Amino acid sequence: MSAAVKWFWFASPQTFFPLAGTIARACWIGAALLAVAGLTVGFFVAPTDAQQGEAYRIIFIHVPAAWMSMFLYVVMAFWAAIGLAFNTRLSSMMASAVAPTGALFTFIALWTGALWGRPTWGAYWVWDARLTSELILLFLYLGFMALQAAIDDPRRADRAGAVLAIVGVVNVPVIYYSVKWWNTLHQGASVSLTRAPSMASTMLTGMLLMALAFWLYSIAASLARVRCIIRERE
Amino acid sequence: MSWGGWSEFWAMGGKGFYVWGSYAVTLACLALEVYFLRRRSREAKT
C-alpha cells in the first residue's frame, strides 16, 4: 500500500481509532517524562533572576501554555476548515477534540500571567493589548464549544463551529504581534528565531522542555478525546 | 538556584504564593482534564 493510500485509510474514524490510542499512550508517557525533566531544570538548575528573583519561575509554565493556546487554536481552525471544505468526518471531530485542551491552556496562560503580573507589575490584570487579545482567545474557544454543544445535529454543529473557528483565527496574529503593534506593559517575545535569546541558556532549556511536555500532553489529550467522540458518534 | 533547604524552596524568595499558586492551578487543571477524559471514555464504552 502506498503512503498516499495509507493517509486516506486513516481518514476513516474506525481505522484511526486504534492508531490514536497507540499515539496517545506514547504521548502521555513522553509528556510526563519531559515535564519532570523540565521542572528539574527549571527549579534546580536555572539560576535566580537578577531582577525578578524567584517569581520568574512562573515562566516555565506561562510561556509554553501561551504558545500552546495560540498553536492549538490554529490546529483547531485548520481541522475545522478541512472538515468544512471536504466534508470529512474525522477532521471535524479533531477540531472538536482540540478545543477544550486549547481553552484549558488559554486559561492557564491567563491565570499564571495574572499571578506573575502582581509581583512584577503590581497588578493582576491590566487592559493591555496582549492580555486583552488572549482573553478574546479564551472566549473564542468557549464560543466554539458552546455553539457546537447548542446544535443537536453533529454535522450542522461541525459546520457552524468551523465558521466561527475560521473567522476567529485572525485573533492569533493579533496576540502574537500585539507587543510590537501597541505599546504594552507585557514584555516582547522571549524567544525569537532572528536573534539570540535574552535569557540564560538553562532557563531557555527548562522552558523548551516544558513546551515539549505541553505539546505531547495536548496531542495525547486531543487524541484521547477524539476517541471518545468517535465512540459517541459512530 | 542554590539549595538552602525545603523551607527556603517553598518560600521562593517571598514569592511562594505567586509561583506555587501558578503551578498548583496548572496541575489541578491538567489533572481535572485527564479525570474527565477517563470518565468520558468509560461512559462512551458502555
Task: Describe the protein in words.
By secondary structure, chain A is mainly alpha-helical. Chain A has one domain. Chain A has eight helices and no strands. The model of chain A has no long low-confidence stretch (mean pLDDT 92). Chain B is an all-alpha fold and 46 residues long. Chain B has a domain at 18-46. Helices cover 78% and strands 0% of the residues of chain B. Chain B has helices at residues 6-11, 16-45. Chain A binds chain B through residues 43-44, 46-48, 53-55, 57-58, 61-62, 65, 100-101, 104, 107-108, 111-112, 115-116, 118-119, 217, 221, 224-225, 227-228, 231-232, and chain B through 1, 3, 9, 12-15, 17-19, 21-23, 25-26, 29-30, 33-34, 37, 40-41, 44-45.
Salient structural properties:
heterodimer; A: 234 residues; mainly alpha; B: 46 residues; 78% helix
Arithmetic mean of pLDDT of chain B: 90
Which stretches of chain B are poorly predicted, pLDDT < 50 over at least 5 residues?
none
**What is the global morphology of chain B?**
rod-shaped
Helix-strand pattern of chain A, N to C?
Answer: HHHHHHHH
Main pleated sheet of chain B? none
* Helix content estimate of chain A: over 70%
How is the quaternary structure best described?
A: heterodimer
Outline the biggest β-sheet of chain A: none
Mean pLDDT of chain A: 92
Based on secondary structure, the structural category of chain A is mainly alpha
Figure out the total of helices of chain B: 2
- Determine the structural class of chain B based on helices, strands and strand pairing: mainly alpha
Number of E-state strands of chain B: 0
